[in-house]
Amino acid sequence: MKVLLAGYNLDREVIEELKKKAPQRQDVTPETLSASYARISRDPRPVDRLRSVARAEVEKARRSNRNIIFKMGHHSVAEHAVFNFDILGISRVATEELEKFRLCSYTEKSQRYQTLTDDFIIPAEIRKAGQQRIFVDTIKAQNSLYHEFYVQLEPHFQKKNPALAQDPEKHSLLEGWAKEDARYVVSLATEGQLGLTLNARNLELLIRRFASKQLEEIKELNRQIYSLAKEVAPSIVLFTDGTDFDLRTYPELEKASDILLKKSPEKEEELVRLVDHTPEADTRVIASLLHTSSSLPYEACLDKARNLKPREKKEFLKIAFKHMEFYDPTLREFEYVSLTFDLIVTASCFAQLKRHRMATLTSQRYNPGLGVTVPPSIEEIGAREDFMRMVERTNDVYSRLKREVGQAADYVLMNAHRRRILLKVNARELYHISRLREDSSAQWEIRSIAKRMSDLASEVMPLTFLLLGGKDVYPECYKRLFAKYPKSFPAGS
């Protein structure tokens, strides 16, 4: 056996410094890795030798990439090339579009931990329509109220939590609570930044999808990303034009939906509803575990699971949980059952929920008709009227802008505004969401959403979700199931 480190990501500025100190060369590109790995299936030479050849013949490697990806359709070779992008000065609207791509990695500026300034995006559509003044005045009013709320909320949380207030190390926590509630009043135009890591295959998909977007900010973001990628790897980012499938499908579905559904007025609904789930879920998880642990076909395992007594089912499933710690994912067999939730969430909550990319998540547009969520702390400091006045002003401006600029009107909406989403999760993924988002350290809105999801899930899959809960309650859940704590978990931790 021999294992070689073939390469790793470097900061581009480091690469440029190294290039300045070395003779000019053409092989400073991730394309050589894609080309050499693509040859592994048919070339008997050692892979490190294939890499050496690709570095020595960059243009040949590029032709090989184009042939393998374009003519042969083996797009997976592009996944061996990885890119990092600094994305600065984009709005929350653009951030949400960027973070729709499931197999990419993101770390973004947090509105929970950083104090916001007055930085925001003025969309090109707003400028062209001559609506800049009303837009800017509204955003500045929202930002001014954000700062007012933050000044009031910080001492409020200190007074409400005297033990934490006396500990200097906990002051940042209290400040964070003030920031995360004050941010409900700021807009989707608020400026942010993020780090993006993705392979070339997903980069190509992103560029192609963005080429069909209507918002000018997304188009400009796309132009800049593509320009930088093409500069260093022209042979593995090939299909970049927008398609009718991306451009026309959803608009045509929306028109057809208007006719079929004849839109009715919005009505007050529950924020969390379980709308579908796998039947016989507990039994099917047990059958899947029996299948992995035996040589029987699935049908026989399912038949056996159906005939187990309730106590036998529970005792068998307990084995799957016995050696778990709070940081362990459940076994993969838990992915064979799923649940679908219809949720109504704010932009603040959606910003966190969308990060669970292994789930299936689709969303409607933000809709002022669904109302807003007012943070409890805003109520506690007696600022609800100020908050709702800003909501009413924002809604009026949104209605005016929507007539003038269509989708670009979304930029003026606040973090408190809601949208409806459809979220499908398998049981393994719901465990992950619950561990992270039900924990006491989680933000209050998503903690409430996650708790309700867990409660509904436990009603229909009581055995599958025997250990469901946040990290903080894991010892308690484990003790309830096994009458003792895990070995590595001291009592009271």
| Helix residue percentage | 40-55%
- One letter per element, helices H and strands E, the order comes to HHHHEHEHHHHEHHHEHHHEHEHHEHHH
Number of helices: 21
Task: Report the C-alpha radius of gyration, rounded.
Answer: 26 Å
Globally, the shape reads: globular
Query: What spatial order of strands do you see in the largest sheet?
Result: 4-5-7-6
Identify low-pLDDT runs. none
Mean pLDDT: 90
Work out the number of β strands: 7
User: Proportion of β residues?
Assistant: 5-15%
What's the end-to-end separation, in Å?
43 Å
Q: Main β-sheet, in a few words?
A: 4 strands, antiparallel
* Helix-and-strand structural type: alpha+beta
Care to describe what's here?
- The protein is an alpha+beta fold and 493 residues long.
- The protein has a domain at 12-80.
- Helix content is 50%, strand content 10%.
- It contains 21 helices and seven strands.
- The chain has helices at 12-20, 31-38, 47-56, 58-71, 92-98, 124-128, 132-160, 162-165, 171-182, 200-210, 216-232, 244-261, 281-292, 298-306, 310-321, 347-353, 376-380, 384-405, 427-437, 444-460, 474-482; strands spanning 82-91, 105-108, 191-199, 272-277, 338-346, 360-363, 418-426.
- The two termini are 43 Å apart.
- 34% of the residues are buried.
